[in-house]
Amino acid sequence: MNLTDQERQSLIDLANEARRRAYAPYSNYRVGAALRTKSGRIFTGVNVENAAYPTSLCAERVAVVKAVSEGEREFEVIAVVTDNGGSPCGSCRQVLSEFGLDTIVLIADGAGRLVHETTVGGLLPEAFTPAHLITD
Ligand code: THU
Q1: What is the pLDDT of residues 12-47, one digit of tens each?
Q2: Core-most of 93, 99, 108, 129, by most CB within 10 Å?
Q3: Is residue 126 among the annotated active site residues?
Q4: What residues have CB less than 8 Å from 129, skipping those under 6 apart?
Q5: CB crowding 2-24: b at 16 or more within 10 Å, else e
Q6: Is the minimum distance from the CB of 27 to ligand 1 under 6 angstroms?
C-alpha cells in the first residue's frame, strides 16, 4: 500500500497529539500511537503506567486493543511517536504481528519527524504467527 506524505504526517501528528495524554509518571517516557484500519478508522493509544511497574501498558498495544475491541482487525499503518524516535518494544511487535506482518510502521520523534519507516514483518523477522498453529 502506498501512503502519501500527507497521510504519513497526519497520522504522526495524531500520535504526537495523543502522546500528551500519556500517563507516564514513572518513566517520563511518553509514547503515542495512531493506528489506521483498512476501513479507514483511526485509533490512538498512549502508554499507561502503573505503580506496579510491570502492569504498565504500551501505547501501541493500547491502540491495537482499542481497535480490536471495536471490531477492527485489519490494519494498514501505525504511527508511533516518542521524544527520541524510539522503536516499538518486542511485545508490541508480537501483538501487531498477530494481525498482519504487512502493517506499515512509522516511527517518529517528538518534533513529528519520521525517523524510520518499516513494516511489522520488518521489525519482527521470522515471527510466530497464527499460521503456525494450523497443524493439518
Ligand atoms: N513503551 C511504549 O509505550 N511502547 C513501546 O514500544 C516501548 C515502551 C512505554 C512503556 C513505558 O511506559 C515507557 O514506554 C518506558 O518503557
Answers
A1: 999 999 999 999 999 999 999 999 999 999 999 999
A2: 108
A3: no
A4: 97, 98, 101
A5: eeeeebbbebbbbbbebbeebeb
A6: yes
